[in-house]
Design brief:
The structure is a single chain. The strands form 2 sheets. A 6-stranded parallel beta sheet has the order 3-2-1-7-8-9, with helices on both faces. The relative contact order is 0.19. It has 11 helices and 9 strands. By secondary structure, the chain is an alpha/beta fold. Helices cover 38% and strands 15% of the residues.
Length: 241
Amino acid sequence: MLIALKKLTTLLEQAQRTILVTGAGISTTCGYPGLAAMNKIALTDSEFHAPILKLLTNRYAQSHPQEFYRMYRKTHFRPQALPSSSHLALAHLEKAGLITGIITFNLDYLHTLASSKKVLEYWGSINENFCVAHHHSFGLEYLVEHPIPHCPFDGSLILPVFVLRNMVAFKKRVAAGRALLKNADLVIICGTQLHHNFPETAANIVVINDQPLRLQQEPALFIQGKLDSVFDALLTTLPST
């Protein structure tokens, strides 16, 4: 891994615009199950017993608010979770000027909690919640305090933004992400199987993952390993940090 880390260090130091793309793998050490594990929780629950995607729909949540919030708190809503050392490392690299922005497919809000400033959450996060009547906004703290949250202004049910939108990504955020990728000269993909249409880019691509990814272009570097270990080691090899 030492040779790979040295190459990654060189790529980072030479790049002018580095973009990170992160998925569930960056958050599993924080206590967040990946999508497959969440689906297993949903399928094996004695009362819900359905795929996780059924839970994340506006229609189901409004029709069964008590059951929705019971399952939501078993799966996605884990406000006690703290950022991993990988989240903290990326925030540190951003502060040092080595990262231009982060695109994440995650809903957990952990990049922002780790103090990263330039984060694009394609589907939103557990910190974005709105009442169904007039879209009054509420942070995750309100959901912590109210088991089945209703708006104090109009009485309507409060739901996470990604449920209100039926897991449809924000077009403006995706467009902003594509612009970042188009202008990047280094893209680091980590902790994701990338089951999404990843646009072609002229940038060097680095993949840090448990297993290789199928991409349209060959990565300049693939590091197979645990993200926390890789990023912890990376910080020790970068003299500028």
